[in-house]
Amino acid sequence: MTFTVGRGELFGLLGPNGAGKTTTIKLLNTLLIPTSGTARVCGHDVEKDTREVRRRIGYVFGGDRGLYDRLSALDNLRYFAELYGVAPRDQKRRIAELLDLVGLAGREGERVEGYSRGMRQRLHIARGLLHSPDVLFLDEPSIGVDPVAARELRRTVADLAATGTTVLLTTHYMAEADELCDRIAVIADGQIQALGTPAELRHRADGRRVVEVEAYGVPESAVESLRGLPGVRETAVEARGALQLLTVHSDAHVDVQGDVLRELAGIRLGRVNSREPTLEDAYVAIVSAA
Q1: Which of its termini does the chain have fewer beta carbons within 10 Å around, N or C?
Q2: InterPro entries of this UniProt entry (predicted)?
């Protein structure tokens, strides 16, 4: 697996669970040692020049770990600034800059235990930027964050990339990757299956149409029948409580919607929608072909 990320680029790593995204991140930030091959960050080998690499990187992961709940956000940042070797004369200015960047200015005196999930994640980003790293690794930063907080988090990441920091992002949210990333690598089975801009990856689903059907109590036999329809390439089923969402990918020149509905005759249906492919559809096509 070989890829290069340019200075100031916001680069996304997408892939199913177990594909190797977090392992790749941990190799690049020196938490794991490569068993073969080489990796370089800012020109420094991650195995031979570990200290030089660590001086130049920041690491932010999703979840609640990494902060002290009983301390205020300000005290957390002061503590980590000492650990990261930020000069005392620079700490006050740097912390103020970061609190403003992540939208926590005015809330820094509050204990972190009272912060929402989204506020915690923004504080994680501020912590990872204290020592002004050249490269910031964001490993699923919006996991478990509500939609409003996720939007604020995406805005923070976009602002960060605009300052010239190189960002390597892993995420399971296709809309997030589509909105933020300059380029994306799709990983499956430890290999890069596709690499390009979001628009370039969407072209991988060109020549397709997508039919979405909300249904209740669809038997597996009906799903198998859908997969056997002429022109159908893939059929996916997502459970949403009692509701099932059927997504049928077909050749663009074949109108399968009528056939799909006939196969589901007698089953309680909800919304039916036919649309153009999205990045998520392209991702499914790429991973399914791996």
Answers
A1: N
A2: AAA+_ATPase (IPR003593), ABC_transporter-like_ATP-bd (IPR003439), ABC_transporter_ATP-binding (IPR050763), DrrA1/2-like_C (IPR025302), P-loop_NTPase (IPR027417)
Burial 215-244 (b: 16+ CB within 10 A, else e): beebeeebbebbeebebbbbbeeeeeeeeb
d(CA 258, CA 106): 57
The answer to whether 172 and 138 are in contact (CB under 8 A) is no
221-280: per-residue pLDDT in tens?
Answer: 999 999 999 999 888 888 888 889 998 988 888 889 999 999 999 999 999 998 888 888
Identify which of 84, 146, 96 has the alpha carbon closest to the alpha carbon of residue 121: 146
**Where residue 63 falls among pLDDT bands split at 50, 70, 90?**
low
DSSP code string of 95-136:
HHHHHHHTT-TT-TTSBGGG--HHHHHHHHHHHHTTT--SEE
Indicate the DSSP class of residue 192: E
Report how far apart, in Å, the C-alpha atoms of 233 and of each of 28, 82, 248, 285 are: 37, 56, 8, 9
> Which amino acid is located at 131 in the chain?
H
Of 97, 103, 154, give the one whose Cα is nearest residue 131.
97
* Residue 279 in tokens: 């990045």
Report yes or no: 208 and 231 within 8 Å, Cβ to Cβ: no
Angle between helices 117-128 and 147-162 (to 10 degrees): 20
